[in-house]
Protein backbone atom coordinates (compact mmCIF):
# COMPACT_ATOMS: atom_id res chain seq x y z
CA UNK A 1 0.00 0.00 0.00
CA UNK A 2 1.16 3.59 -0.60
CA UNK A 3 0.64 6.44 1.80
CA UNK A 4 -0.11 9.90 0.43
CA UNK A 5 3.58 10.72 0.07
CA UNK A 6 4.23 7.69 -2.09
CA UNK A 7 6.28 5.76 0.46
CA UNK A 8 5.57 2.08 0.78
CA UNK A 9 3.90 1.04 4.00
CA UNK A 10 4.42 -2.63 4.73
CA UNK A 11 1.12 -4.06 5.81
CA UNK A 12 2.17 -7.51 6.90
CA UNK A 13 3.28 -8.34 10.40
CA UNK A 14 6.86 -7.31 9.64
CA UNK A 15 6.18 -3.84 10.87
CA UNK A 16 2.53 -4.21 11.78
CA UNK A 17 1.80 -1.62 9.13
CA UNK A 18 3.00 1.28 11.20
CA UNK A 19 6.58 1.89 10.18
CA UNK A 20 7.06 2.98 6.58
CA UNK A 21 9.87 1.63 4.43
CA UNK A 22 11.32 4.44 2.35
CA UNK A 23 13.52 3.95 -0.68
CA UNK A 24 16.52 6.19 -0.08
CA UNK A 25 18.26 5.27 -3.33
CA UNK A 26 18.03 8.74 -4.88
CA UNK A 27 19.88 10.33 -1.97
CA UNK A 28 21.99 7.42 -0.74
CA UNK A 29 25.43 7.99 0.68
CA UNK A 30 27.17 7.47 -2.66
CA UNK A 31 25.40 10.50 -4.12
CA UNK A 32 26.84 13.99 -3.86
CA UNK A 33 24.35 16.03 -1.91
CA UNK A 34 24.85 19.19 -3.96
CA UNK A 35 24.01 17.35 -7.18
CA UNK A 36 20.68 16.09 -5.97
CA UNK A 37 17.68 17.85 -7.32
CA UNK A 38 15.61 19.81 -4.79
CA UNK A 39 12.44 17.95 -5.78
CA UNK A 40 14.04 14.64 -4.82
CA UNK A 41 15.06 16.07 -1.46
CA UNK A 42 11.61 17.54 -0.89
CA UNK A 43 9.91 14.24 -1.72
CA UNK A 44 12.12 12.25 0.64
CA UNK A 45 11.87 14.96 3.29
CA UNK A 46 8.07 14.77 3.17
CA UNK A 47 8.07 10.98 3.47
CA UNK A 48 10.45 11.02 6.40
CA UNK A 49 8.61 13.87 8.08
CA UNK A 50 5.34 11.94 7.96
CA UNK A 51 6.98 8.93 9.60
CA UNK A 52 8.73 10.99 12.26
CA UNK A 53 5.58 12.89 13.19
CA UNK A 54 3.49 9.71 13.39
CA UNK A 55 5.46 6.81 14.80
CA UNK A 56 8.93 8.33 15.13
CA UNK A 57 10.59 5.45 13.27
CA UNK A 58 11.29 4.70 9.61
CA UNK A 59 13.04 1.91 7.70
CA UNK A 60 15.32 3.08 4.89
CA UNK A 61 16.29 0.78 2.07
CA UNK A 62 18.98 1.47 -0.53
CA UNK A 63 20.69 3.73 1.99
CA UNK A 64 24.14 2.95 0.64
CA UNK A 65 25.79 1.69 3.84
CA UNK A 66 27.49 -1.44 2.53
CA UNK A 67 26.19 -4.74 3.89
CA UNK A 68 29.77 -6.06 3.89
CA UNK A 69 30.79 -3.28 6.29
CA UNK A 70 27.97 -4.18 8.66
CA UNK A 71 28.75 -7.90 8.44
CA UNK A 72 32.42 -7.23 9.11
CA UNK A 73 31.59 -5.07 12.13
CA UNK A 74 29.17 -7.62 13.57
CA UNK A 75 31.72 -10.36 13.14
CA UNK A 76 34.55 -8.41 14.81
CA UNK A 77 32.21 -7.31 17.60
CA UNK A 78 31.13 -10.90 18.21
CA UNK A 79 34.76 -11.95 18.54
CA UNK A 80 35.22 -9.18 21.10
CA UNK A 81 32.09 -9.99 23.12
CA UNK A 82 33.06 -13.66 23.28
CA UNK A 83 36.36 -12.81 25.00
CA UNK A 84 36.59 -13.54 28.74
CA UNK A 85 35.28 -10.78 31.00
CA UNK A 86 38.70 -10.10 32.49
CA UNK A 87 40.01 -9.16 29.05
CA UNK A 88 36.98 -6.99 28.21
CA UNK A 89 37.28 -5.34 31.61
CA UNK A 90 40.39 -3.54 30.37
CA UNK A 91 38.07 -1.54 28.12
CA UNK A 92 35.27 -0.89 30.62
CA UNK A 93 33.44 2.44 30.57
CA UNK A 94 34.45 4.78 33.34
CA UNK A 95 32.12 7.76 33.56
CA UNK A 96 28.92 9.30 32.29
CA UNK A 97 30.79 12.23 30.80
CA UNK A 98 32.98 9.95 28.76
CA UNK A 99 30.26 7.53 27.58
CA UNK A 100 32.76 5.19 25.95
CA UNK A 101 33.86 1.60 26.36
CA UNK A 102 32.53 -1.77 27.39
CA UNK A 103 29.43 -2.19 29.54
CA UNK A 104 29.34 -5.67 31.03
CA UNK A 105 26.31 -7.99 31.11
CA UNK A 106 23.44 -6.53 33.18
CA UNK A 107 25.23 -3.22 33.65
CA UNK A 108 22.75 -0.84 32.08
CA UNK A 109 19.37 -0.05 33.54
CA UNK A 110 17.20 1.80 31.06
CA UNK A 111 13.97 1.70 33.06
CA UNK A 112 13.51 1.88 36.81
CA UNK A 113 10.55 -0.47 36.39
CA UNK A 114 12.74 -3.36 35.31
CA UNK A 115 15.98 -5.09 36.32
CA UNK A 116 19.17 -4.41 34.35
CA UNK A 117 19.19 -5.46 30.69
CA UNK A 118 20.33 -8.90 29.51
CA UNK A 119 23.02 -7.43 27.28
CA UNK A 120 26.54 -6.17 26.88
CA UNK A 121 27.57 -3.21 24.77
CA UNK A 122 30.55 -1.23 23.58
CA UNK A 123 30.43 2.50 22.84
CA UNK A 124 32.89 4.12 20.47
CA UNK A 125 33.61 7.68 19.53
CA UNK A 126 32.61 8.35 15.95
CA UNK A 127 35.90 9.97 15.05
CA UNK A 128 38.35 7.97 12.96
CA UNK A 129 41.34 8.86 15.14
CA UNK A 130 39.65 7.18 18.04
CA UNK A 131 42.19 6.07 20.61
CA UNK A 132 41.14 2.61 21.70
CA UNK A 133 42.73 -0.31 19.93
CA UNK A 134 42.15 -3.97 20.57
CA UNK A 135 45.19 -6.20 20.44
CA UNK A 136 42.85 -9.16 21.06
CA UNK A 137 40.66 -8.35 18.00
CA UNK A 138 42.92 -6.52 15.56
CA UNK A 139 40.23 -5.86 12.93
CA UNK A 140 37.66 -4.37 15.32
CA UNK A 141 39.01 -0.81 15.24
CA UNK A 142 39.07 -0.57 11.47
CA UNK A 143 35.61 -2.10 11.10
CA UNK A 144 34.21 0.47 13.54
CA UNK A 145 35.84 3.41 11.79
CA UNK A 146 34.73 2.26 8.38
CA UNK A 147 31.15 1.72 9.41
CA UNK A 148 31.01 4.93 11.45
CA UNK A 149 32.01 6.99 8.46
CA UNK A 150 29.15 5.61 6.38
CA UNK A 151 26.73 6.30 9.22
CA UNK A 152 28.04 9.84 9.44
CA UNK A 153 27.27 10.45 5.76
CA UNK A 154 23.78 9.02 6.13
CA UNK A 155 23.13 11.11 9.26
CA UNK A 156 24.10 14.32 7.47
CA UNK A 157 21.59 13.58 4.75
CA UNK A 158 18.88 12.76 7.25
CA UNK A 159 19.47 15.92 9.28
CA UNK A 160 19.19 17.95 6.08
CA UNK A 161 15.93 16.25 5.13
CA UNK A 162 14.52 16.75 8.62
CA UNK A 163 15.11 20.51 8.30
CA UNK A 164 13.48 20.56 4.85
CA UNK A 165 10.56 18.45 6.08
CA UNK A 166 9.95 20.91 8.90
CA UNK A 167 9.80 23.72 6.33
CA UNK A 168 12.80 25.55 7.77
CA UNK A 169 14.32 28.24 5.54
CA UNK A 170 17.82 26.96 6.17
CA UNK A 171 18.34 23.26 5.33
CA UNK A 172 21.59 23.35 7.32
CA UNK A 173 19.81 24.28 10.56
CA UNK A 174 20.67 20.90 12.11
CA UNK A 175 23.81 19.86 10.25
CA UNK A 176 25.51 23.07 11.42
CA UNK A 177 24.95 21.95 15.01
CA UNK A 178 26.19 18.40 14.39
CA UNK A 179 29.92 18.54 13.72
CA UNK A 180 30.02 14.82 14.25
CA UNK A 181 33.64 14.29 13.25
CA UNK A 182 35.02 16.85 15.69
CA UNK A 183 35.91 16.70 19.39
CA UNK A 184 32.97 19.07 20.04
CA UNK A 185 30.52 16.30 19.39
CA UNK A 186 29.55 13.27 21.49
CA UNK A 187 27.85 11.07 18.90
CA UNK A 188 28.67 7.40 19.42
CA UNK A 189 28.58 4.09 17.66
CA UNK A 190 27.39 1.30 19.93
CA UNK A 191 27.76 -2.41 19.31
CA UNK A 192 25.21 -4.42 21.28
CA UNK A 193 25.40 -8.08 22.20
CA UNK A 194 22.49 -9.95 23.75
CA UNK A 195 23.84 -13.38 24.75
CA UNK A 196 21.82 -16.57 24.35
CA UNK A 197 19.19 -17.08 27.03
CA UNK A 198 20.07 -20.39 28.62
CA UNK A 199 18.08 -22.38 31.19
CA UNK A 200 20.84 -21.85 33.79
CA UNK A 201 20.88 -18.05 33.36
CA UNK A 202 19.83 -16.30 36.56
CA UNK A 203 16.94 -14.17 35.41
CA UNK A 204 14.87 -11.87 37.58
CA UNK A 205 11.14 -11.33 37.14
CA UNK A 206 10.39 -8.84 34.32
CA UNK A 207 13.95 -8.90 33.10
CA UNK A 208 14.24 -8.42 29.35
CA UNK A 209 17.07 -7.79 26.91
CA UNK A 210 16.65 -4.04 26.83
CA UNK A 211 14.06 -2.20 28.89
CA UNK A 212 11.68 0.48 27.64
CA UNK A 213 13.42 3.75 26.87
CA UNK A 214 13.69 6.55 24.37
CA UNK A 215 17.07 7.60 22.97
CA UNK A 216 18.70 10.77 24.24
CA UNK A 217 20.15 12.67 21.30
CA UNK A 218 18.90 13.79 17.88
CA UNK A 219 18.43 10.68 15.78
CA UNK A 220 19.54 7.04 15.99
CA UNK A 221 20.44 4.72 13.11
CA UNK A 222 19.81 1.11 14.13
CA UNK A 223 21.06 -1.93 12.27
CA UNK A 224 19.73 -5.20 13.67
CA UNK A 225 20.52 -8.81 12.80
CA UNK A 226 17.75 -11.26 11.90
CA UNK A 227 16.89 -12.48 15.41
CA UNK A 228 14.18 -9.97 16.25
CA UNK A 229 12.77 -8.85 19.58
CA UNK A 230 12.77 -5.09 19.06
CA UNK A 231 9.40 -3.54 19.86
CA UNK A 232 8.15 0.02 19.88
CA UNK A 233 5.36 1.79 21.65
CA UNK A 234 2.50 3.04 19.55
CA UNK A 235 0.60 6.19 20.42
CA UNK A 236 -2.11 4.06 21.97
CA UNK A 237 0.47 2.63 24.38
CA UNK A 238 0.87 -0.94 23.14
CA UNK A 239 4.21 -2.40 22.08
CA UNK A 240 4.44 -3.78 18.54
CA UNK A 241 7.36 -5.57 16.83
CA UNK A 242 9.79 -3.65 14.66
CA UNK A 243 10.96 -6.78 12.92
CA UNK A 244 14.24 -7.01 11.04
CA UNK A 245 13.76 -6.03 7.40
CA UNK A 246 16.80 -7.24 5.43
CA UNK A 247 19.15 -4.56 4.09
CA UNK A 248 17.38 -1.68 5.80
CA UNK A 249 18.40 0.68 8.56
CA UNK A 250 15.83 1.69 11.13
CA UNK A 251 16.03 5.39 11.96
CA UNK A 252 14.31 7.00 14.91
CA UNK A 253 13.89 10.41 16.47
CA UNK A 254 15.48 10.85 19.90
CA UNK A 255 14.55 13.06 22.84
CA UNK A 256 16.57 16.20 22.14
CA UNK A 257 15.21 16.36 18.59
CA UNK A 258 11.68 16.02 19.93
CA UNK A 259 12.41 18.88 22.31
CA UNK A 260 14.05 20.95 19.57
CA UNK A 261 10.93 20.58 17.42
CA UNK A 262 8.47 21.20 20.29
CA UNK A 263 7.10 17.64 20.03
CA UNK A 264 6.44 17.84 16.29
CA UNK A 265 8.82 14.94 15.75
CA UNK A 266 8.27 12.14 18.23
CA UNK A 267 10.84 10.20 20.20
CA UNK A 268 9.17 6.83 20.58
CA UNK A 269 9.86 4.42 23.41
CA UNK A 270 11.21 1.03 22.43
CA UNK A 271 12.57 -2.15 24.03
CA UNK A 272 14.06 -5.53 23.16
CA UNK A 273 12.24 -8.57 24.48
CA UNK A 274 13.40 -12.16 24.61
CA UNK A 275 11.83 -13.88 21.62
CA UNK A 276 9.38 -16.54 22.68
CA UNK A 277 10.34 -20.16 22.07
CA UNK A 278 13.47 -22.08 22.97
CA UNK A 279 14.76 -22.01 19.43
CA UNK A 280 15.36 -18.30 19.38
CA UNK A 281 16.44 -17.79 22.94
CA UNK A 282 19.40 -20.05 22.22
CA UNK A 283 20.63 -17.45 19.73
CA UNK A 284 22.61 -14.42 20.66
CA UNK A 285 21.24 -11.19 19.17
CA UNK A 286 23.41 -8.38 17.87
CA UNK A 287 22.74 -4.86 16.72
CA UNK A 288 24.63 -1.66 16.00
CA UNK A 289 23.26 1.74 16.98
CA UNK A 290 24.71 5.01 15.73
CA UNK A 291 23.56 7.68 18.17
CA UNK A 292 23.64 11.12 16.60
CA UNK A 293 24.02 13.95 19.09
CA UNK A 294 24.22 17.69 18.54
CA UNK A 295 27.53 19.35 19.48
CA UNK A 296 28.20 19.16 23.21
CA UNK A 297 27.95 22.92 23.71
CA UNK A 298 24.99 23.40 21.41
CA UNK A 299 22.06 24.87 23.30
CA UNK A 300 18.88 23.19 22.14
CA UNK A 301 15.95 25.56 22.15
CA UNK A 302 12.69 25.20 20.28
CA UNK A 303 13.02 26.12 16.62
CA UNK A 304 9.49 27.53 16.57
CA UNK A 305 10.54 30.13 19.16
CA UNK A 306 7.68 29.25 21.52
CA UNK A 307 9.96 27.80 24.18
CA UNK A 308 7.75 24.87 25.04
CA UNK A 309 10.85 23.51 26.77
CA UNK A 310 13.54 25.67 28.34
CA UNK A 311 16.82 25.80 26.39
CA UNK A 312 19.31 23.15 27.47
CA UNK A 313 22.91 22.42 26.61
CA UNK A 314 23.34 19.09 24.83
CA UNK A 315 26.09 17.83 27.15
CA UNK A 316 24.16 18.77 30.30
CA UNK A 317 21.11 16.94 29.05
CA UNK A 318 22.91 13.78 27.97
CA UNK A 319 25.06 13.58 31.11
CA UNK A 320 21.96 13.57 33.31
CA UNK A 321 20.45 10.82 31.18
CA UNK A 322 23.60 8.67 31.25
CA UNK A 323 23.94 9.08 35.01
CA UNK A 324 20.42 7.79 35.35
CA UNK A 325 21.17 4.74 33.22
CA UNK A 326 24.45 3.49 34.66
CA UNK A 327 25.46 2.93 38.27
CA UNK A 328 28.91 4.51 38.41
O1 LIG B 1 19.35 -3.53 20.08
C1 LIG B 1 18.39 -2.91 19.66
O2 LIG B 1 17.73 -3.31 18.69
C2 LIG B 1 17.94 -1.63 20.30
C3 LIG B 1 18.97 -0.98 21.17
C4 LIG B 1 18.53 0.35 21.66
O3 LIG B 1 17.40 0.72 21.56
C5 LIG B 1 19.51 1.25 22.29
O4 LIG B 1 20.64 0.83 22.56
O5 LIG B 1 19.17 2.43 22.51
FE1 LIG C 1 17.25 2.83 21.96
Brief rundown of the structure:
The protein is α+β, with helices and mostly antiparallel strands and 328 residues long. The chain has helices at 38-54, 67-81, 85-88, 140-165, 255-260, 278-281, 314-325, and strands spanning 8-9, 20-23, 57-61, 101-103, 120-125, 188-194, 210-213, 219-224, 230-233, 239-241, 248-253, 270-272, 285-292, 299-300, 312-313. Bound molecules: 2-oxoglutaric acid and fe (ii) ion (FE2).
Give a structural overview:
The chain is an alpha+beta fold and 328 residues long. It has a single domain, classed as B-lactam Antibiotic, Isopenicillin N Synthase, Chain (Jelly Rolls). The chain is 26% helix and 20% strand. α1 crosses α4 and α2 crosses α4. The protein starts with 7 loop residues before the first strand and ends with a helix. The N terminus is likely disordered. The chain binds 2-oxoglutaric acid and fe (ii) ion. The site of 2-oxoglutaric acid (AKG) has 11 residues, from β6, β8, β12 and β13. It comes from Ridgeia piscesae.
